[in-house]
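Allow me, if you will, to draw on your knowledge of protein folds for a short while. The matter concerns a single protein, recorded as an amino acid sequence and a row of backbone structure tokens. Could you please explain, in whatever detail you think fit, how the structure tokens follow from the sequence? I remain grateful for any guidance, and I place the record below:

…
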Amino acid sequence: MRGLCWGLFLCLIASIRSSGTEPTTTDVFVPKTDGFKSIRIPAVVVTNQGTLVAFAEGRAANADQAKNKLVLKRSQDGGKSWGPIAVVADAGDRSLNNPCIVVEREHGQLLLMYQSFPANVSERSKAVEPGHEGDRIVRNHLIMSNDDSLTWSKPRDVTGLTKRAVGVTTIASGPGLGIQLRHGPHAGRLLFPMNEGPFGLWNIYAVYSDDQGKTWAMGDVAPGGLIDTPNAKGGKTSTVNEAQFVELNDGSIRFNVRRWAGKAVRKTCLSRDGGLTWSNVEDVPDLIDPSCMASIYRYTDPAAGGIGRLLFSGPQSTKRENGTLFLSDDEGVSWPVHRVLCAGSFGYSCLTALPDGSIGCLYEAEGANRIVFARVTLDWLTHGKARADRNED
């Protein structure tokens, strides 16, 4: 086992269990060999051509804002091997953060949203200013690819369309995945999950496009994201932070959100109008959260025939470890099926489904010292007890 640290060894041991084809893991981003001091914040998507594309932040130091560039790697064999690292966005001394990716189904266009921070300024800094103009603001950008992620457009600044002009300092897309609605009156709508600061006072909301990414607008923040905290400055603290969401079978949208304060479980709320407004933020009792980004993903759609299933991946512990995959067949109301993917260190993660029906999970391992792609089967996740489903070809 030369070259395997103890954390990765625990991940492999957790995988060697009965029921179904056992998980396989492959290193994707390794800072020492990929030319960065740190590589963090994974996102992964399958294109219309079946290419697997992984994104992350390539950092000049072990810090959230460290002249970050956005990087990618591509896999043509379902994650078994990966091509060379490529930089897709670079703003010099400004730091690029929170890659969030969606594929527009009709034309196969990839849309990547991210933010740029002022040079040498962190999101915790009081130097970050609100508004849409000036060198001290956080900006929101969008780049697109029309050739299966081989080349990308120049960044388009969409700050004025996706960030409130008053009171908001930081914003963050995802990180992870955006979605495109399939059902209801807003079918075809592209959406990215967002949070907005100041630091520690975040609210969550959606930004959306009804014209395949040409123009963008934003919805309201979800109520209940802030709680009274007498000892905090201003008397309030946020319960929410980094966010992901998924479309439900009736066309509504369910947020699944990192916990910042409150009970140590994931947070959720619903939109029934395409992301314009949201129900009150509530706890998700089944999903422990040590305060870490996690992933939610639509695996099978009942509209295609069969069972509708959602997937979730995240650490299930008081710290970032014990990475567990969950399955829900009631649209995320409960999560009764689960299995440990990695018993060791497990940080941010992002889920996808491969063309052959396998489940892919890109996650931070070894204390975020490498980013790994795991491939599992539904049979493994359910201990061989998955019900027959016409969606599984």
Remarks:
- The two ends are 36 Å apart (CA to CA).
- The chain has one domain: 6-381.
- Helices lie at 6-15, 31-34, 159-162, 378-381.
- The longest strand covers residues 38-46.
